[in-house]
Design a protein that fits this description.
Rossmann fold, 28% helix, eight-stranded mixed β-sheet, four-stranded antiparallel β-sheet, alpha/beta, 325 residues, globular, 12 strands
């Protein structure tokens, strides 16, 4: 059994407009996502800005309420739980936010920020809480004297380390990392990625790692899911995605990644047009207006995410399992 299983998950946001701001439509931010995350692995999620990555991560944790679908964690449906049941389960599921500046309360000291979860879940208080926070500071590469400082006294990389310590405080098994290095300098990104990998090995953590940086995802992930306009269009092991991508959208993303070698040249795949609106997505395959390989069926029928014998899932009429190579 997978640690996490997502079935047909949807999150639609209402769109107001017209007289008296009546509902005029809905943004299909997450539209029927299916995926599973195995215990101890890092599942990477990649896609363009606005494709629904962060909304998916937060919907899984019920930080925002999904419109429909099911989310099973350790065999239990999170969407069927009461708030009391969900609160008990939250000890096992935490999140590292994208912005290390906005995600920390500027009026709280570091010790209070990291230790807040311990008090909420009644795990420790007083000296026991302080000792646990000191231990966490050491684990993420900070010092004891940082305990009584405020967030504004730290650099971006240090603030993200505080965010990681806060996520680890209640000893979770599953962590959603929502673009945790996107706002950091490249050298600091490497430090944070290495820290996350070390912590995963020591604490047997499972990560759902969201990013738009394909190279970062390749480095840290065991499997990778590619998201486009609210849907997962391809999913496979990291090696298969980066060496043998099937979906035209995945291929286009990979062709845009710079190669650190001036002697090597790579053919760039230029997509037509802009990303369609999630308020009014195109019929059939959502990617077909921009796809250089589209066929007649692509604008008529929506392709399903189908898996081949090698566990490589592709949602495409042209390049799906058993079709064109």
């Amino acid at each position: 059994m997978s640690l996490l299983e997502v079935r047909n998950l949807k999150k639609y946001f209402p769109v107001g407009g017209g007289l008296f701001s009546r509902r005029s439509g809905e943004v299909k931010a997450v539209d029927g996502v299916n995926l599973a995350v195995e215990e101890g692995e890092t599942m990477g999620l990649v896609g363009e800005s606005g494709c629904g990555k962060s909304t998916l991560g937060r919907s899984i944790l019920r930080l925002i309420e999904p419109t429909g679908g099911e989310v099973y964690f350790q065999g239990k449906n999170l969407l069927a739980m009461s708030q009391r049941e969900l609160r008990e389960m939250r000890r096992q599921m935490q999140i590292i936010f994208q912005d290390p500046y906005a995600s920390l309360n500027p009026r709280m000291r570091v010790g209070e920020i990291i230790g807040e979860g311990l008090e909420i879940h009644k795990l420790a208080k007083g000296k026991k809480k302080r000792d646990r926070v000191m231990e966490l500071l050491h684990q993420v590469g900070l010092r004891e004297e940082h305990y009584d400082r405020y967030p504004h006294e730290f650099s971006g990389g240090q603030r993200q380390r505080i965010g990681i310590a806060r996520a680890l405080a209640v000893s979770p098994t599953f962590i959603v990392a929502d673009e945790p290095v996107s706002s950091l300098d490249v050298s600091i990104q490497a430090q944070i990625i290495n820290l996350l990998q070390e912590l995963q090995e020591k604490m047997h953590l499972t990560y759902f790692f969201i990013s738009h940086d394909l190279r970062v995802v390749e480095h840290i992930s065991h499997r990778v899911a590619i998201m486009y306009l609210g849907k997962v269009v391809e999913i496979a092991s990291s090696d298969k995605i980066y060496r043998d991508a099937k979906h035209p959208y995945t291929r286009a993303l990979l062709s845009a990644v710079p190669i650190p070698d001036p002697e090597r040249k790579k053919e760039r795949i230029i997509l037509e047009g802009d990303v369609p609106s999630p308020v009014n997505p195109p019929p059939g395959c959502a990617f077909h207006p921009r796809c250089p390989y589209r066929e007649d069926i692509c604008d008529k029928a929506e392709p399903k995410l189908e898996f081949g014998a090698d566990s490589h899932g592709v949602s495409c009429h042209v390049f799906g399992p058993g079709k064109r190579v």
